[in-house]
Design goal:
The chain has 455 residues and is an alpha/beta fold. The protein folds into 3 domains: 3-96, no CATH class; 124-312 and 430-453, Vaccinia Virus protein VP39 (Rossmann fold), CATH 3.40.50.150; 314-412, no CATH class. Helices cover 31% and strands 18% of the residues. It is built from 14 helices and 16 strands. The strands form 4 sheets. Strands 8-7-6-9-10-12-11 form a 7-stranded mixed β-sheet, sandwiched between helices. A 4-stranded antiparallel β-sheet has the order 14-13-15-16, covered by helices on one side. The longest helix has 18 residues, at 436-453. Keywords: Methyltransferase, Restriction system, S-adenosyl-L-methionine, Transferase. GO terms for molecular function: methyltransferase activity. It holds the Pfam family DNA_methylase.
Length: 455
């Protein structure tokens, strides 16, 4: 290899161990029956070499006995331009962890306090319009490794960079690279460095122009050229990457757009079998009413959307956090909403919004899912933090201020996910994200169907 490459990326290479037996014969390890296959990582030992500058002199360094299952990921990281420091850190993690059971779903998927450990041969995914990683959080809980995530909003560059930093903090240990470019820019580059034929490709195009809250504002709403170019870029990703499964999530009105039509036409052109519908994620155990368009497209075998489970009230989901929340006082409009409710109902825990002009009631009884959580709950029209975004009124007259950890639970985030301290950034991640608890169910369902189809 060129010296410059050893300095920047290092070298992954196969080798064999030679041993002389008592009978004088020479054998090579790992032992292989029949001919050794150069394309099979398990037929070789693996090592990684690189150079470091010590006291002005370049010196060679190496790591041996790399698990064969980690080889495809290391190669992918090299193709994507990862630094040798990132590659070395990944190798050390791969060597230090015992191999995980080769299951479609991680054993600890029900314990959201423990960060999942993925097997080396886990399915891989590419995510477009990644945000802070709601999709990725659900994917790793379902046993899928996100390897590339694209996230950048040129209209909010500082916020977008902060969100991308949080994404890197939570998912870099899985070998996931965050690309801070628009999906349109990445498409113009021909998706350079992206894996071809990944197991999964997901897209959640920006939905602001299709949401009811946005279109309700006078003079606003409607599909824009940016929406259409984003959809064309997604369609180009399908053409060039040709994933085994493509998924999409957006607000219900997106299905009426030219953007959605452009994506559908490309999927049909490449003979994907398509299933899509508007689902209420409260029907899947999310303690929040959140209606979203969800699409699954697969090649060679039709994959259907999962069916719902038992709805969950918001109070049950976050009751353990309420004692830790700070005291609050209701605003006049919140007080009016409370009095209206109590005039017709027995006292019960209520979640009462502080902001927003939606037509829905500002309150939700504890036995019901919360109203849809929006980014605008956490920031004002200038993008600055809101000190308070919702309150919890209890029958004893106590009022508590809903916290970011509480909102994260209502959005279905696992407790291992680490949010930034700034409320505007954390709230934006929550408001933008696909609820991870729904994502787990979606991709677990997909994987079970695919496994059943090819047994």
């Amino acid at each position: 290899m060129k010296s410059s490459q050893l300095h920047s990326q290092g070298c992954l290479y196969p080798y064999l161990e030679k041993k002389k037996l008592l009978d004088g014969s020479i054998v090579f390890y790992p032992r292989v029956i029949c001919e050794r296959d150069p394309n099979n990582p398990t037929h070789y030992r693996w090592a990684y070499n690189w150079e470091e500058r010590v006291d002005g002199v370049w010196k060679g360094r190496s790591i041996g006995s790399i698990p064969p299952g980690a080889v495809p990921m290391i190669r992918l990281m090299q193709q994507q331009g990862a630094t040798k420091e990132d590659i070395i850190a990944f190798i050390k993690r791969a060597k230090s962890k015992k191999p995980s059971p080769k299951l479609d779903v991680c054993k600890n998927s029900d314990n959201t306090k423990i960060k999942p450990t993925l097997p080396d041969n886990a399915p891989i995914a590419v995510v477009l319009f990644a945000g802070g990683g709601g999709i990725e959080a659900g994917m790793v809980e379902a046993g899928i490794r996100p390897v590339i995530a694209v996230e950048f909003d040129p209209t909010k560059p500082d916020l977008s960079r902060a969100i991308a930093f949080t994404h890197h903090h939570n998912f870099s240990e899985y070998g996931c690279r965050i690309i801070q470019l628009t999906v349109q820019e990445v498409a113009q580059s021909g998706f350079l460095g992206f894996p071809r034929c990944p197991d999964y490709l997901h897209a959640s195009p920006v939905c602001a122009n299709f949401s009811q809250a946005h279109t309700a504002k006078a003079g606003k709403g409607g599909e824009t050229s940016d929406d259409l170019t984003a959809a064309i870029a997604v369609a180009e990703a399908v053409r060039q990457l040709q994933p085994r499964v493509f998924t999409l999530e957006n607000v219900p009105r997106y299905q009426e757009s030219e953007s959605f039509t452009a994506i559908l036409e490309t999927l049909e052109e490449y003979r994907y079998l398509i299933d899509y519908s508007v689902v209420n994620m409260a029907d899947f155990g999310l303690p929040q009413a959140r209606r979203r368009l969800v699409l699954i497209a697969s090649r060679g075998f039709r994959v259907t959307l999962p069916s719902g489970t038992t709805p969950c009230g918001w109070y049950e989901a976050i009751v353990h956090l309420i004692p830790t929340m700070t005291d609050s006082q209701l605003l006049p409009k919140q007080q009016q909403a409370l009095e209206k409710f109590l005039a017709e109902n027995a006292p019960t825990a209520l979640l009462i919004e502080r902001v927003g002009g939606r037509k829905l009631p500002k309150y939700k009884p504890g036995s019901h899912p919360a109203n849809t959580i929006l980014r605008s709950h956490f920031t004002d029209h200038k993008g600055c933090n809101r000190n308070k975004f919702a309150d919890i009124w209890l029958p004893d007259g106590t009022t508590k201020s809903l916290t970011i950890p509480g909102a994260a639970i209502l959005q279905g985030f696992p407790s291992w996910y680490e949010f930034p301290n700034e409320a505007a950034t954390a709230g934006s991640i929550i408001g933008y994200s696909v609820p991870p608890s729904f994502v787990v169910q979606l991709f677990t369902h997909i994987q079970k169907q695919l496994s059943g189809a090819f047994l």
